Amino acid sequence: MFTILPIKGFIDQIDGFFCDGIHAGLKPNGNNDLGFIYSDTPCEVEAVFTKNRFQAAPLKHFQMYEKGFKTNFVLINSKNANAMTGQKGIDDINEVFASLNHDLLNPIMSSTGVIANPLPKEKIIKGANSFNLSAKSGENLSKAIMTTDAYPKTCMYEVKLQDGSSFKIGAVAKGAGMINPNLATMLCFICTDAAIKREDMKELLEANSHSTFNAISVDGDTSTNDTVLLLANKKSNAYDKEAFKEALRLVMHDMAMLMVADGEGAKKAVAFEVVGAKDDKQAEIAAKALSNSLLVKTALFGEDPNFGRIASTIGASQIECDETKLVISYNDVKVYENGVILFDEACEARAAEVLKNSEYKVLCNIGIGEGKFTAYGCDLGYKYVEINADYRT
């Protein structure tokens, strides 16, 4: 038995973790753009990365360390992705770390921003050398890693175990655009003082990624820098695998849902729940097709309950399906059932009311088997084009 309680605050509330964010001159508007996470005890570390074949220099740098390495420091910059920069991008990271006046163990770098620009290493070195590693400024860090995010993304939980011991787990993340299954243009840093076994870290990260970060889409694009990092300093001496797995799932789900809700220019966060598919894999294919469809997204933006776009997308996904067995609902408003169109004037009005909400569910019962999967997406409107047309400026 265990109890998981949400608590207010940032990752700096976890014993042994410190963080801060500053303005180092990367963002021209004066906002925070450089941050760090530091642990006074070396951390076990595991990560999952983007599936994009052109992984950015920080990801390649991480993977150059020996398997099973520990770290006590993560340096994070926004405004520059250090992607498509070749060997120079990796060399620049090494130069940055060699120039810092802090006592660092296998430091990790994480970057987000514009692709194919050299890392502004002089500004980063100067800024990082001004860090106070005893700072506890989670709010500053959360703002420093933002790019097109409308707001910071954080969460914290305390887990109380049956034997009276407890541990904390929390996260800080960024992500609003280039969000697509196989991670997204997102960075997520999860910190815990749980005494988790090293072999459990990768297993639980990957298990929970499938239904959280790999189940969301804003625009169907997968970035070069996507990173989910789990740092465990084990200072609580408390651990239970099932409790940690559930707490980690909650943290990752919270961060994923905040990213969908903050999709660039988005006003709607929508769950696409597919049930009754031949198997779970076919349900996943259909659900992700719905969350990625531009026609579906624009209908959501227009608050138009055009279920024809839903049905068409399911059919185009090439899963096994039959229109005489299909049921489509917006929340509890059925619009199509087993080949019968229920979409009369009154039904359309009720469905349109659902689509006025900021959050709702599109439920599709394929009527074939027991497979199920839920993907998450958002609407797509004028603001998305405006943000991305002017992204480099």
UniProtKB/TrEMBL annotation:
Keyword Ion transport: no
Keyword Amino-acid biosynthesis in record: yes
Record-listed substrate binding positions: T147, K174, T185, E264, N388, T393
Class of enzymatic activity (EC top level): transferase
Pathway assignment: Amino-acid biosynthesis; L-arginine biosynthesis; N(2)-acetyl-L-ornithine from L-glutamate: step 1/4; Amino-acid biosynthesis; L-arginine biosynthesis; L-ornithine and N-acetyl-L-glutamate from L-glutamate and N(2)-acetyl-L-ornithine (cyclic): step 1/1
Keywords, comma-separated and alphabetical: Acyltransferase, Amino-acid biosynthesis, Arginine biosynthesis, Autocatalytic cleavage, Cytoplasm, Multifunctional enzyme, Transferase
Annotated catalysed reactions: N(2)-acetyl-L-ornithine + L-glutamate = N-acetyl-L-glutamate + L-ornithine; L-glutamate + acetyl-CoA = N-acetyl-L-glutamate + CoA + H(+)
One biological process term in Gene Ontology: ornithine biosynthetic process
Similarity comment: Belongs to the ArgJ family.
Localization annotation: Cytoplasm
One Pfam match: ArgJ
Function: Catalyzes two activities which are involved in the cyclic version of arginine biosynthesis: the synthesis of N-acetylglutamate from glutamate and acetyl-CoA as the acetyl donor, and of ornithine by transacetylation between N(2)-acetylornithine and glutamate.
One GO CC term, this protein: cytoplasm
EC number assigned by the record: 2.3.1.35, 2.3.1.1
CDD domains: OAT
Subunit comment: Heterotetramer of two alpha and two beta chains.
Active site: T185 (nucleophile)
Protein name, UniProt field: Arginine biosynthesis bifunctional protein ArgJ
Gene Ontology MF terms: L-glutamate N-acetyltransferase activity; L-glutamate N-acetyltransferase activity, acting on acetyl-L-ornithine as donor
Annotated site residues (Involved in the stabilization of negative charge on the oxyanion by the formation of the oxyanion hole) in this chain: T112, G113
Site (Cleavage): A184, T185
